[in-house]
Amino acid sequence: MSDTTATLPGEPKRGSILVASDRMRRRNRIEGIFRWLGLTAIVASLSVLALMLFTIFRDGSSAFFQAKLSFPVTLEAQVLDPAGNRSRDEMVKQTTVTYGKVLEGAFLAALAEKGIQTADIPEKDIRTMLSKAGPGELRARVLAEPGLLGQTIEVTVLAGGRIDGYLKGRVTMQSAERDGNVTTEQLVLADRLKDAGMLGLSWNWNFLTNPDASDQRPEAAGLGVAIIGSAFMMVLVLIMCVPVGVASSIYLEEFAPKNRFTDLIEVNIANLAAVPSIVYGILGLAIFINFAGFPQSSSLVGALVLSLQTLPTVIIATRASIRAVPPSIRDAALGVGASRMQTVFHHVLPLAMPGILTGTILGLASALGETAPLLLIGMVAFVSNHPSGPLDGGILDPATALPVQVYSWATRSDPAFIERSNGAIIVLLVFLLAMNVTAILLRRKFERRW
């Protein structure tokens, strides 16, 4: 007999476990391809995100700086206060036209005093280098401080939009030859003013505080009204959404009987979360403005519309957080004699709080970036005055919002507004980043392990 074991017919051939089989090599190859595709997708996504952020910051960061002219101005009392009694009622009769003449005369005098050559430049072109917002700013300063009359003060006023663009590289000598709003002589004078220390770029706080401006003075446009309007709306959405959303979630998850009616409610909540935002805008226009008669383009109407849109998201996130609490927590509380209400509010809700806060803040962040519903209720209107305080009826005053302001500026033809629209996107991204960071910090603060 032989010690060799015969191989039975049809028995699979067995290889060594130390040597990879063809099937194993094929599996490893497929796994490697899948990992490579996944890594490629991540790199491509991050590359697109980095390119988008780079473009936004490249084109929008200059909006936070503004070209300004500095020169002395003599505030002649006989011109600005002919009555001579320093009465605000009398001084307010002097319009920006009068202050504009004072400002332009002082600017021409400062050029002559500095010895800057202007013989080759028409006087009209020299005057238009000043922003049209300058006379209004000087008038507001004098009305606030009547004691300045009769004195010579140093003023810093905005330069015109094209001069601002020249200092930022947006306007060049070549483009000025094709632009009817600026001449090459003005750009040459801008270089002379810069060398003399009268013209330069400085931090632009007005971009964050000023209201919107007309097409004739884009350099004065700011986000003040949009920031206030967005803040009003987010506070109102928080007040209206969170109590209703959390209460509805607790009832549906802990107390509501499981029947067809509650199933219908759950289906409708899921459907409402998927409804396009513009539908909520149409609903808000029909109900809150046409039927209820609320003021158009007010923060209150915007908050009501965004609350309707955000409420399903808050309910879904809250229910998911409550459902994630282990049933053993409920059983233990009920087992020691706690009531159903005590079980929910003393044990379940505190454990679900991190998820509730995260879902709520992310819902608010989503509402902050909405544009379509706000366009339909008139918040795209030009608003030149800041809303009043919240206790003075400011939520009923006309306002706008950050994403709507981005849209409004992006549709204007002047390149200065395109720069400001990118700057507004940066501000909006900062707000969204702050809200997401807040959500993470609150989640970690209230997180409990079981």
UniProtKB/TrEMBL annotation:
SUPFAM superfamilies: MetI-like. One of its GO terms (cellular component) is plasma membrane. Keywords: Cell membrane, Membrane, Transmembrane, Transmembrane helix, Transport. GO terms for biological process: phosphate ion transmembrane transport. It holds the Pfam family DUF3333. It is found in: Cell inner membrane; Cell membrane. The gene is pstA. GO terms for molecular function: phosphate transmembrane transporter activity. The lineage of its organism: Bacteria, Pseudomonadati, Pseudomonadota, Alphaproteobacteria, Rhodobacterales. This is Phosphate transport system permease protein PstA. The keyword Membrane applies. The chain crosses the membrane at residues 33-57, 223-252, 272-294, 300-320, 348-369, 423-442. It is a multi-pass membrane protein. Its main location: membrane. Belongs to the binding-protein-dependent transport system permease family. CysTW subfamily. Coiled coil: none annotated.
